[in-house]
Amino acid sequence: MKNLLFKAETLTEALPWIKATAGSTVVVKYGGAAMTDPALREMVASDLVLMKLVGINPVIVHGGGPEITALMERLDMPVEFYDGLRVTDDDAMDVVKMVLVGKVNKELVSAINRHGRLAVGISGDDGNLLRAHAISERLGRVGEIDAIDTTVVTDLVADGFIPVIASVAYGDDGGSYNVNADLVAGELAVELGASKVIFLTDVDGLYADFADKGSLISALSLQQAEDLIASDGLSSGMIPKVGACAVALRGGVERAHILNGTVPHALLLEVYTDAGVGTMITAEGASATAAEGR
After folding, report:
1. Cβ contact 179:168 at 8 Å
2. What CATH number does the domain containing 135 carry?
């Protein structure tokens, strides 16, 4: 009976959050171990389906860096990074598209669609969703976003689907570009008028002291997050994510969340419970009430 009462209390706690988020759009950047572990992928997929069924419109953005590297190594292709970005010549771009569009995207779509006719996979060059130009000659076909046309995404959402978007963009030269999935998620959240952008990663969130796992920060302002960067208080892997949070929040998105995709049902715990399990960043401050939504 105690177990049943606990389940009932959990559902009761979720009720105000369900009411607050119903009808909203939430962009989820899917990455980390939750992408490569089949069991975690299934769990994330079920969380996304539940969110859809209780009224949220999830839009998924994903990359796939480890899988790209693995295939390039299997093909004896050089793997090179410059300023933290993958050097992407024409041959490497072919691999990027094969992995992101042909493998990772379809695996996530299949995981979601085990629960019904729910997800459609696309890439950023479908319907000219993402347009980009080359960042530099040194990086090759690594792109920076010029424009976003959300028509194909909003049409899919209106038809009841969950769009799953591979972070590949279309260029004016007729080719494709490899673009950073974190920044795609942040900028797309702005263009869609999303209420939240959520980054699934391999750590629990932002820490006041990364060496102290008891110092996880549940909520803070964007200014406080940027102060952490300025004081070298963040790991190098978190800096791009906070940068993408800044893009979203300054563009009008209400909340940005960073959480550990390896925690079972992390998405549901962050969105539908009072305390959450990750770090929430807001433009103005760190407070939130059930009426506002975590």
Report:
1. yes
2. 3.40.1160.10
Give the chain's domain count.
1
**Phi-psi bin for 96: left (phi > 0), alpha (psi -120 to 50), beta?**
alpha
Could you tell me the residue range of the domain that residue 76 belongs to? 2-282
Strands (E), the chain: 25-30, 57-62, 81-82, 85-86, 119-123, 130-134, 143-148, 162-166, 168-171, 176-178, 196-201, 219-221, 255-260, 279-282
Residue 248 located in a structural domain: yes
Which amino acid is located at 226 in the chain? E
- List strands edge to edge, sheet with 130-134: 143-148, 130-134, 168-171, 176-178
179, 145 Cβ separation under 8 angstroms: yes
Model pTM?
0.91
Please report whether residue 290 resides in a domain. Answer: no
Amino acid present at 78: P
Q: How far apart are CA 119 and CA 36, in angstroms?
A: 19
Q: Which residue carries 């279309």 as its tokens? A: 170
Residue 287 within a domain: no
Tell me if 25 is assigned to some domain.
yes
User: pLDDT tens for residues 62-121?
Assistant: 999 999 999 999 999 999 998 888 999 999 999 999 999 999 999 999 999 999 999 999
C-alpha distances out from residue 155 to 113, 186, 256, 277, Å: 18, 20, 24, 32
* Number of neighbours of residue 205 by Cβ within 10 angstroms: 24
Contact predicate 109/121, CB 8 Å:
yes
Q: What is the mean pLDDT of the chain?
A: 89
pLDDT digits (tens, 9 = 90+) for 22-72: 889 999 999 877 788 889 999 999 999 999 999 999 999 999 999 999 999
DSSP for 101-131, written as a single string: IIIIHHHHHHHHHTTSS-EEEEETTGGG-EE
| Residues 186-227: tens digit of each pLDDT | 999 999 999 999 999 988 898 887 777 778 899 999 999 888
